[in-house]
C-alpha cells in the first residue's frame, strides 16, 4: 500500500471511529452512561421564564393603558427547580410593586412610555427581597408591551 492510500484509510477509519463514539459520549454527558459521570461542561447560568404579567395603568382619568411583561430570571446553573415553586409569590410582589408605580407615573418617561430601566431596577429589588442575595444573577425583561385604551 502506498502512503496516500494508507493516509486516506486512516482518515476514513478516524471518521468512522468518531461517529461511533459520539452517541456514547452524548449519553455519558447526559448522565446516562456508566457511573453517571458528566463529561459536558455545564453553563454558569440557566433561565426561568415566568408566566406573562398583565397590569392596568389606572390614573385619575381611569384606565388609560395596559402593560404586559414577560420576565425571565437568570439563575446560577442547577437552581431553576428551587425557584419554580416561588413563581406565584414573585409575580404577586411584581404586580404589587409596579401597579402603583405605573399609575402614579413613577416608572414612566415623557410621553407615558415605560422606563424599562426603572422597571427592571424595581423587579430586581423585589426579587432580591423575596429570594435573598445571590439567588438570581439578573432579572431580564423579555417582553414589554404597552397598549393604550
Write down the CATH topology of the largest domain.
Tetrahydropterin Synthase, Chain A
CATH superfamily membership of the largest domain: Band 7 domain
| CATH C-level of the largest domain | Alpha Beta
Amino- and carboxy-terminal Cα gap: 82 Å
Beta fraction of the residues? 25-35%
- What is the number of helical segments per DSSP (H or I, 4+ residues)? 4
What ranges have pLDDT less than 50 throughout 5 or more consecutive residues? 4-11, 13-26
Fraction of residues in H or I helices: 40-55%
Structural class of the helix and strand makeup?
alpha+beta
H-E string: HEEEHHEEHE
User: Sheet bearing the most strands, described?
Assistant: 4 strands, antiparallel
- Rounded radius of gyration (Å): 25 Å
Mean pLDDT: 80
CATH architecture tag of the largest domain: 2-Layer Sandwich
Number of strands: 6
Shape: elongated
Amino acid at each position: 500500500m502506498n502512503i496516500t492510500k494508507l493516509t486516506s484509510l486512516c482518515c476514513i477509519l478516524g471518521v468512522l471511529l468518531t461517529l461511533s463514539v459520539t452517541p456514547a459520549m452524548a449519553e455519558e454527558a447526559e448522565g446516562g452512561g456508566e457511573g453517571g459521570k458528566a463529561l459536558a461542561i455545564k453553563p454558569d447560568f440557566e433561565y426561568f421564564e415566568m408566566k406573562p404579567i398583565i397590569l392596568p395603568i389606572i390614573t385619575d382619568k381611569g384606565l388609560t393603558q395596559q402593560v404586559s411583561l414577560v420576565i425571565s430570571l437568570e439563575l446560577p446553573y442547577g437552581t431553576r427547580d428551587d425557584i419554580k415553586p416561588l413563581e406565584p409569590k414573585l409575580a404577586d410582589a411584581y404586580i404589587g410593586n409596579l401597579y402603583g408605580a405605573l399609575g402614579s407615573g413613577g416608572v414612566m418617561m415623557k410621553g407615558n412610555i415605560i422606563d424599562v430601566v426603572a422597571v427592571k431596577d424595581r423587579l430586581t429589588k423585589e426579587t432580591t427581597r423575596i429570594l435573598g442575595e445571590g439567588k438570581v444573577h439578573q432579572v431580564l425583561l423579555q417582553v414589554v408591551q404597552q397598549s393604550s385604551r
